[in-house]
């Protein structure tokens, strides 16, 4: 029973780490999968296999190394010197994402709840500080609350789409996109998300003693991500091509279900922003603890204060420059993971 509960917590943490605001809004699924037509079902299946296999191997490697942060893993994958530089670059990107997530939380408060932007920032920072002070177990608990709600909403959307006249679109819509681009999309998507998920998966793998918990947690987590991808693709396909014009496609679908589901889904999006924020902030703090000889609470406060400051300035220009480069590094990282574990079996 105890192992079963821990497996579920690992699975939910894995899902919550990958399923960020872009996923919950539907924008990521639309860009990486749905716009490619019926082939997206196959590319989602391929992406799911990667999430299961590499996710498990990632946590296994962290378990064997007793890794405290993703730098310990990157040194093994890239070597001592290059691994340090890769980790430094990842620190910069992680900080960029934490800042954008914090800004997103402020925007939700301002535009949807009609409260001030600063209120959203401060509420998110206070909640984050309380949770992050309790470590990886608290992050797992938060994900164990948010992810089941996300799964429930996905089920509701699937049921709603099932009764739509265009419910079969996911199997018949076509795309004029290049086949190389279509089949590279799941590889890039998985590489980027798994490279980012290191921030939480590595310390979680290093902290959990039982390998079987990591195996089954990774299996259920990867499969859960695949089911969420498929559910969103199924719903979005039924609304194509019109749905592509919206910044929050899934939110547009929820408006058709009534006011209460729309408000509830808004809270889910905030929850996904929050889980991504605390996950990345935790990974960043663990990384800095290995480099800076300061108390963990001081490092955490510095990260949160700096995120708060930069979130007022805006970070879009820096991220637009970093994301393509990080995408390339993520692909190299995934290839090295596959190469190192090519003889491993599930």
From TrEMBL:
InterPro entries: YkvI-like. It comes from the Bacteria. The chain crosses the membrane at residues 7-24, 36-56, 85-109, 115-132, 144-162, 182-201, 213-236, 263-282, 294-315, 321-339. PANTHER family: CONSERVED MEMBRANE PROTEIN (PTHR37814), MEMBRANE PROTEIN (PTHR37814:SF1). The keyword Amino-acid biosynthesis does not apply. Keywords: Membrane, Transmembrane, Transmembrane helix. This is Transporter. The lineage of its organism: Bacteria, Bacillati, Bacillota, Bacilli, Bacillales.
